[in-house]
Fold:
Amino acid sequence: MRYLERLKNLKAYKTETTPCKVKLSSNESPFDLSDKLKERISQEIKKINFQRYPDPHATRLKEAIANFVNSEENLNITSENLVLGNGSDELIHLLITVIGDLKNPVAYPVPTFPMYQVSSDVVGRPKVEFELDENFQLTKEEIDQTLSKNPDAFFFASPNNPTGNSFNKSLIEYVIDKGVFTVIDEAYIHFSDKESFLKEALQYDNVVVLRTMSKVGLASIRLGYLIAKKEVAQEINKARLPFNITYPTQVIGEIVLTEGLDELNQQIKVVKEERIRVMSEVSKIKDIKVYPSDANFFLMKVPNGDLLHKQLIEKGVLVRNMSHLPKLENCLRVSIGKKEENDEFIKAMFEIFKNG
Structure:
């Protein structure tokens, strides 16, 4: 066990796994793929030689991702601008491992996605955590103070998880202009009307954008991607583990991104519409503050987060209790589900607060 001493103080990333009828806790898409798309996937999966390694470069999948992003952003991204990961989590871990010197810190605001902290701790890298303001926004004062500590990289999740808001773009640009390596994690960008950082990622040597298919219907296949200048992507790709994108993932990802885009886009549209409706209904409850959201979830502050979390579970609705994170005491994060799931959540909320 002496070889594992350094691991004793690490805290593993935790997910909410309590079984409930309505699961609104993990920011997944509530929609499964259609039977038609599943049938196409089944046809292609049958052709896989399972005894063989997958394409180490995921060539066809990269081309499909590049076409997908270009169709949204009207850019000229090619396969050479991409690095693929087993979910964006793997790419976060990869960047924290290879960017700059492990003796120098990485920086990120709090509260935010916990994997920046988890991956830093796993590799023993110093961290500079700086606070968001009362509206969960970046401030120049906090950024300047952080810059004075000479971090090798900044991580910004925008839209931010678990707060749901997008960050002030000019302040991220301020960090970029300082020459610090800047990672913009756009896991939730498909649910936002805010401008992305893809143009900057293709222009600057010190900017990369992370995205994932997990929030738009493919969480099960674990597929994330990094977008950067060709020269930057090429260097980062050297550190990627071989065969990290499985053969089934390559097949499924390519089919969905070439034949299922209308389906995905319609589902995203429904989630955005439901987000507006659910947030509006919950805002009618006295003593609850609902924060603005550009994501497929929203954050709400309640009188007693632990109690409400428990009461919702008793009514068969699972949301995420964020009360343990900085600035999020008595805050719950609610993923947007199907209309009937959202109705169950709204009904449970009104019943709890009517009787409370």
